[in-house]
Design goal:
Radius of gyration: 21 Å
Pfam families: Cytochrom_C_asm (PF01578)
Number of domains: 1
Distance between the termini: 42 Å
Order of helices and strands: HHHHHHHHH
Organism: Sorangium cellulosum (Polyangium cellulosum)
Protein name: Cytochrome c assembly protein domain-containing protein
Oligomer: single chain
Shape: globular
InterPro entries: Cyt_c_assembly, YpjD/HemX
Helix content: over 70%
Structural class: mainly alpha
Keywords: Membrane, Transmembrane, Transmembrane helix
């Protein structure tokens, strides 16, 4: 009976967490610049720059269904953790993955209580996927028996999701770098006459955002599916630790850039710097993927 309740609660939590995360992402993705506020700043003449301190867009109202799904997913998560601890004979206090599950449940509870008062609906972009990742971590790391080998197609999907996500972040980083170069030229009135072939600042800013929007779900999928290999972190595998650290750092930075754009109107220079910082960590993940056969990382 415990096994049945544990399995059903896990599947329900997985379903509702996934749906809530998708809705939170769509809320952030649709909060784009609209109307006359989207000005061609390069066409306004030298010295003008995006005002990153004021939101220049009309934010769409957040979805009411996403927090509800997140709450239902958290209930399923809590039920699974409770029953799984009895089934697997694992004490939550002495288990890292169970402690992370409890921490994510507390974070979700605080978020659901505070989101309306502090207007932090967009924070669900972080909370939803984290709850999903820690749920999977509890499921796969809490097994008292060795887990079966994964299908090659699943491994290929995991790798391709990461690599495609990083490729889109490379494009976003390139657009962000070009934005900073052109903004600096406009600010100091240098080489303005040579800038006819460069895109306007507003177009570059939107390109950065769209590349991040396209790459973020792929990286999230890579992070979630990567939970299958999380047991290697506890074994001290250097390669896996490095890749996980850089992967989560990339995901967190990109999520913060998207979150701050939706919630605080961060655009222009701030978004560009955040994107480039995320690109540095994404490049580190890519380097580990490419050089590990030659370097023999992880032994």
């Amino acid at each position: 009976m415990r096994e049945v309740v544990s399995g059903v609660s896990f599947l329900l939590a997985l379903l509702f967490y996934g749906a809530a995360s998708a809705l939170f992402f769509l809320d952030v993705a649709r909060n784009r610049t609209r109307g006359p506020a989207a000005l061609d700043l390069a066409g306004r003449g030298p010295g003008h720059a995006l005002d990153a301190t004021r939101p220049s867009f009309n934010a769409a109202p957040p979805s009411r269904l996403a927090p509800l799904l997140l709450g239902v997913g958290a209930l399923g998560h809590a039920t699974y953790v409770t029953f799984a601890s009895f089934v697997a004979r694992v004490c939550p206090v002495h288990s890292v993955h169970f402690m992370l599950s409890v921490a994510s449940l507390l974070a979700i509870a605080v978020y659901l209580v505070a989101r309306r008062r502090f207007r932090i609906d967009a924070l669900g972009l972080l909370i939803g996927p984290l709850g999903l990742a820690f749920l999977l971590g509890t499921f796969f790391l809490g097994k008292p028996h060795p887990e079966p080998k994964l299908h090659p197609m699943f491994i290929a999907a995991h790798v391709m999701a990461n690599l495609l996500g990083i490729a889109l972040f490379l494009l976003a980083g390139a657009s962000a770098a070009l934005y900073l170069v052109q903004e600096n030229r406009l600010k100091h009135k240098r080489h303005v006459e040579r800038m006819g072939g460069l895109p306007p600042l507003d177009i570059l800013d939107r390109a950065v955002h769209r590349f991040l929007i396209a790459g973020f779900p792929l990286l999230t999928l890579g992070i979630v599916t990567g939970t299958f290999w999380a047991h290697r972190l506890e074994m001290g595998n250097t390669e896996e630790v490095m890749r996980a650290v850089f992967g989560y750092a990339t995901w967190l930075l990109i999520a913060l850039v998207l979150l701050l754009r939706a919630a605080a109107g961060w655009r222009g220079r701030r978004a560009a710097y955040g994107t480039i910082a995320g690109l540095v960590f994404a490049a580190a993940v890519l380097v580990i993927y490419l050089v590990r056969p030659a370097a023999g990382l992880g032994g």
